[in-house]
Amino acid sequence: MKILIAYATSEGQTRKISRHISDRLADAGHAVEMLRLADASGLKIGRFDRVILAASIHVGHYQRELTEFVADHADALNEKPTLFVSVSLAAAGHDAEDWRGLDEILADFTEATNWTAGRTEQVAGAYLPSHYDLFRRFVMRRILAAKDPSADLAADKEYTDWGVLDAVVDGWLAE
Ligand SMILES: Cc1cc2nc3c(=O)[nH]c(=O)nc-3n(C[C@H](O)[C@H](O)[C@H](O)COP(=O)(O)O)c2cc1C
């Protein structure tokens, strides 16, 4: 199968997740094209059998290039089996309020684009102080200290569960 993986990332974790999915699909014999949404203008979605979109949440929103891409290609996307990978730190825990927030962010995105993916998966991202500027480091330290009191606030920490991600992708492919 020909599969498109198009992603947006701010600190790199969604690229890493997209690369992981791409490698898995390629190993299974699929023809995979992976590119940044920012570089996707003019892309013909009709060439692909399936499409995976991935983006991360910052201050309650996905990257603008995701919203623009989906709004531009909603009709073509609606004709394909699609998987939307939503990456955040809220998905790393079990806090009910955090998960309600994820539902609201997704609902806002759906309303803005008029598109609902065939399947949406909330995937835990990473805390990456080595990638943050001073202000972001300050804000994110406070958020992580509340969320994961045992975490070393000076160190990068990945919350992505690669085994769960593999199962999601395999399940979606089998649908
Ligand atoms: C400035 C900033 C704001 C963030 N805002 C949110 C947020 O509102 N909700 C959330 O769940 N995660 C939030 N995160 C966590 C990111 O979604 C998480 O680090 C993710 O792995 C980033 O993926 P990326 O590296 O592909 O951009 C934020 C991270 C940063 C640095």
From TrEMBL:
InterPro entries: Flavodoxin_dom, Flavoprotein-like_sf, Protoporphyrinogen_IX_DH. One of its GO terms (biological process) is heme biosynthetic process. Residues 4-147 form the Flavodoxin domain. One of its GO terms (molecular function) is menaquinone-dependent protoporphyrinogen oxidase activity. Pfam families: Flavodoxin_5. Gene3D superfamilies: 3.40.50.360. This is Protoporphyrinogen oxidase. It comes from Thioclava atlantica.
